[in-house]
Write a structure and sequence with these properties.
One of its GO terms (molecular function) is zinc ion binding. By secondary structure, the protein is an alpha+beta fold. It has 7 helices and 4 strands; from the N terminus they run H-H-H-H-E-E-E-E-H-H-H. A hairpin with a 4-residue loop joins strand 1 and strand 2. Zinc ion binds next to helix 6.
Length: 206
């Protein structure tokens, strides 16, 4: 959020100016979301490497933008990283030391811990925990072990093509409803009621 605010305002901006900029930015975000939804509905994402099962899996689930980001990380993992060490510390826990070399030939290292039974993964960069997307180091570890899919817990639902399916969406509103605000309220009431019914039936308690 800090990054967003710094990008749209200056130190000399007035409070009103900040809010106006923020409002403009939110409108732009919504427009980009609508455009992304439209593009996702036009067909499946083009898979850059046809015989790669991991890319196929992700292309079916993620939106085009998120697939693009995933693919960039995948490429870095495949073509820019090297496995320096690969050893087991227990029956299922594998440790991989991963090296990246920049143009000035400075090396950087990360340690990835992969449970080969559960496919749980943790990288010393902690970028998944911070940003919610698997980075090149973790992807390199998966492909190095010839794994063909990524556990769904590492693919966030909020970036999936159907993330908004059961939530409010402009297309879900009846076009005949002239009062958009009333239509929105009706739609959200129905969604909240459905959710309450589902929670009531759920046996899991907090
Ligand atoms: Zn990492």
């Amino acid at each position: 959020m800090n990054n967003v605010c710094h990008a749209i305002t200056k130190a000399t901006s007035s409070l009103v100016g900040c809010f106006l900029q923020m409002e403009k930015m939110i409108i732009n975000c919504r427009e980009r979301e609508k455009e992304e939804d439209f593009r996702c509905k036009q067909g499946t994402v083009h898979v850059d490497v046809k015989n790669c099962p991991i890319l196929k899996q992700v292309s079916k689930l993620y939106t085009r933008t998120m697939y693009g980001k995933f693919y960039e990380n995948f490429k870095v993992g495949e073509f820019g990283l090297f496995i320096e060490k690969d050893y087991m510390t227990s029956e299922s826990i594998c440790i991989m030391e991963i090296r990246w070399c920049d143009r000035a030939e400075n090396n950087k290292y990360w340690t990835v811990e992969l449970d080969l039974k559960t496919l749980d993964i943790h990288c010393s960069c902690c970028k998944f925990e911070t940003n919610g997307i698997l980075y090149s180091h973790a992807l390199k570890a998966y492909t190095h072990k010839n794994l063909t899919s990524i556990p769904e817990k590492y693919l966030h639902r909020r970036w999936m093509v159907h993330a908004k399916k059961s939530i409010y969406h402009h297309d879900n509103l009846k076009r005949s409803e002239s009062n958009c605000s009333l239509a929105f309220r009706n739609h959200m009431c129905r969604a909240a009621y459905d959710l309450a019914l589902r929670v009531e039936k759920c046996e899991i308690t907090i």
